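Students often ask why we bother encoding 3D structure as a string. The short answer is that it lets us treat folding as translation between two languages. Here is a chain of 265 residues written in the first language.
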Amino acid sequence: MIRNQEIDYKIFGEELQYVEVELDPGETAVAEPGSFMMMDDGITMQTLFGDGSEQQDNSLLGKLFSAGKRVLVGENLFMTAFTNTSSGKKHVSFAAPYTGKIVALDLLRLGGRVIAQKDAFLCAAKGVSIGIEFQRKLGTGLFGGEGFIMEKIEGDGMAFLHAGGFVQEKELQPGELLKIDTGCIVGFTGTVDYDIQFIGGIKNSIFGGEGLFFATLRGPGKVWIQSLPISRLAARILAFATYNRGKEEGSILGGLGRILDGDRY
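And here it is in the second language, the structure alphabet:
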């Protein structure tokens, strides 16, 4: 069995983080297009169709199937490989797309498999496989929302996810149950059982404002939780923009009306 490449790393920043990966001669890191920040001289870039892992089927049909799976989880058809072609150690950095935290995963210590929120993947050591994970239960398929189609990250190297807001890591004991909003899940190890549960109660359903269903995660295993899912952030920004546009268009005074409303700009 081929061991995935081992890479050293450092995470910089507090709310808008980036990860710096150290590559030995010949080592490669793969990342989502658009996540690249900076790199030392001596590193070459190459576009890959798929994730470039050893597990990937290199036939044309296999590559097309792999690409189709990545589209379903909201990822790009291609990935970018960064290889150290020099004779010394070099560094390449990848930036988070929005405010939040970068989560470092040592897959070798996590059982070789982590299920993550779609579009959470940032970068990894070459050899790590990034695919699709369908939740097989009927309830998750019909009502899972953000948690139905997820990413499957497999291998024994380092991988990095990005999460919104603050990230909490929890260790669930065997049989321990955690109820959580589907969007607040960053990822969980392959030993955790995932399902969807109906909240219940007519008042909760109509006036609760949290949706009709939430996710249940049952241990054993690790779970990573984010306090600000990007979907929730986007919804608030859209609501704010729509509200302010409506005020401007509906006011005879225009800009003066916004000042009277207490808006300085």
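Translate back mentally: The chain has a mean pLDDT of 79. Keep this in mind for the problem set.
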